User: Fold this.
Amino acid sequence: MKNLLVALDLTQEEIEIFKSIPDVALTVKKQSEVTADDVKDKHIIVGNINPNLLESAANLEFLQLNSAGYDNYIKKISDKTVLCSSVGAFSPAVSEHMLAMTFSLIRHFHMYRDKQNNKDWSDLGKIISVENSTITVLGLGDIGKSYAKKVKAIGASCVIGVKRNISEKPEYIDELYTLDDFEKAVKKADIVVNVLPSTPQTVNLFDKIHFDMMKNGAYFINVGRGDAVDENALVQAVKDGKLSGAALDVTRHEPLDKNSPIWSEPRILLTPHVAGWFFLQETKNRIVKISSDNVRAFVTGQSMRNVVEH
Assistant:
C-alpha cells in the first residue's frame, strides 16, 4: 500500500478518480494547506507543494507536478525519486493566451483601451498582420508547437522554430534552429515569442545585444520564464522604438516590483502569470488525467508519461 497525497483543489468526482487507483491510501489537501507533517509518510505526492517541504518527505518515491516546469524541484528530491511533469496539459490555454497577446500587440488593443479610458478618439497609426509575417518561436514543446500551428494556419509566411536539439521538422515549421543559432532566428522575425524553460543557457538570453539585433519595429512576447529577459534592456528597446511593443506573462520577480518601469510603459502589455494555471477547465481536466494515469502506472509497474530525467 502506497500513501498518496494529492495537493490539488479537487471536486468529489475528481477525488473518486484517484480513489479508484488500487493499493493507495489517499489524502487530499489544497496545496496552500500542505504541511511537513502531511508529507513525511507519503510515498507519492501529486501537486506543486512548497519545494522546501520535500525535505520532510523521507519516504517519497514519486512526485507528480501539476506544472510543465520542474526547475524548482530538481534539487529538492532524491535522484531515486521518480519525477513527472504535466506537459501536455497547458497548450490550449497558453497558446491561445499567446495568440491573444499577438493580436493585441500588433493591433494596439491595449493602448486603445488606454485611449478609451481617457475618452481619446484618435488612432495609433500603422499596424502589421500575422498573415505574411515571419514569427520565431523559441521553445517547441507542446505549447510552442500549438502556437506555431495556430499562426501558420492564420497565414504567417514563415514560422521559425528554435529548440535545444534538432529533430524532425514539423510541417508547420518553415525553418528550425538550435539555441546555438538563436541569433539567425531572431534577426529576421517580425514577432519573436519565447516559451523556453529556465536553464543556465536561457538566463538573460534576451539582453540589449539581442534586442539590438532584432528587426526594427519587431514585437516580443515572453510566456516562458522571466529570467530569460533583461527587463531594463527590454523597456529601453521599447522606449527607443527599436521594438514596436512587447507582451509579458512572466517577469523576473513575481509579483512584479511596484517600482518597475514595465508598469508605466504603454507599449508593454502585462498579464500576471495567468496564461496557464487552472483558469481553463480543460487544463485541470488534463492535469487530473495525466496525474491519475501516472499514479496508476507507478503502482502497477507500467510505463509513465512525462518522466523527467534528473
